[in-house]
Amino acid sequence: MSAHSDPVVPGTPVGRRVVLGMLGLGALGVLTGKTVQGGINAIASRDPTGLTSLLPGTGGFRYYSVTGDEPVESTAQYRLTIKGLVDHPTTLTYAELAAMPQTHLVKDFQCVTGWRVPGVPWSGVALSHLLDVVGVKDSAKAVLFGSFDGVYTESLTLDQASGTDTLVATHMLGAPVTQSHGGPVRLYVAPMYGYKSLKWLSSIELSDKVVPGYWEDNGYDVDAWIGKSNGRSDAPVT
Amino acid sequence: MLARFTRGERWVHWSLAVLMTVLLVTAAVLYLAPLEQLIGRRRLVAQIHVYTGYLLPVPVLAGWARSAALRLDIRRLNRFTLLDWAWLRSRQRRSGAIAVGKFNAGQKLNAAFTLGAIAVMLGTGLIMHFTRLWPLAWRTGATFVHDWLAMAILVVVIGHLWFAAKDPQARAGMRTGQVPLGWARREHRLWAIEEEARTPAATGAARPPDRDSDAAEPADGPAPGPSTAADGSPLRRPGWRR
Questions:
Q1: Per the CB 3.0–4.6 Å rule, which of A44, A204, B8, B106 could disulfide with A52?
Q2: B14: domain CATH number?
Q3: CA distance B239 to B233
Q4: Which residues from B are below 8 Å from A26, CB to CB?
């Protein structure tokens, strides 16, 4: 047999074994990963050095934005417009919001993609208080929210908006809401998935019907109750 | 010069390189807060990432179907002999004391890892993309595997680029398909022997002027015989020094 014919390659098929081994480990990881990740998160939350936040999957909040530009408004520039089916349409400054009765909450933030940040302190003006101040007409059934990023929109039914755990938030984590967290003013809807908590809040409009917002248009549920929507069973925020 | 990689093989390598780069860059933007804040456009970046991922098997499958040279090289990459294990254990593995075939054991492991990683990333990526088809716990598990394997892939890719940066002749092999004969004899001695045994006249005529000064290198004459026994252990041949 001349050397030109197909040579037989000697040796043990280690390459194939590596590939099969990785597939096996991958499947094992998919089946057990949730438990392992939970263990890592438990350790990470007690880590005084904070080094564990370098590991994948830990580190608390993740930054999500749907536009390319950074929406920036200073507290001096900031305006919140309240309009639509209300008795007294108005535009509020940051100072006027700060002068209103403040509500403080300590609640988890649960993202629909799976990460959860426990025990986040929030404060601001209860949405229900703002609606009382402007007076809601009888024909109003829903509250629509707009963002000064120009893209993000959200909505709640009037019922959902009238609870004590929905805030027009000016502070979180013990400090004014930072730009990347949606500051200076954002929405926080405690019992629902994080996408309802619209960032860079600029307008509140009372309407006769719910208009699905940005993330609902992208396939997420309109009524985003934690643990009872989006096919998920996360523990509700209490 | 020796022909090391055919055009089809190079096409597969460079296609994978481009796809991997796009995947790693988009992954960084999706994952690292400072980059995310800089770029935003989460939905677009995620779509680029996902569809690029789905394209990953295309070069591999197309190459497998159409390139006999690639199929043979895959077989070479798959097989380990005793020499490969010795090479991995050796502290002086780069010295050439242990004979190396077309691919050294490190390259074989890299190839196997890459193939396995593509498969696992694709599988976990599918679970993450089509969330409603699977139990929720699988989605969390898939994200966990995807995250950690991405880190491992980054490390391996950096290692791959590091080795490539150190070896211009190896890079030439993947860029032009050809490598200097002297480099081949030094870095992949068994392969050089195999290639020269196949076409001794052609390689004799094409020797570049910067060949190594191997004392016993014949200018012409019969091709050298094998320098390994059947089990892959090196035969000592006087004069065939590195």
A1: A44
A2: 1.20.950.20
A3: 18
A4: 119-120, 123-124, 145, 149
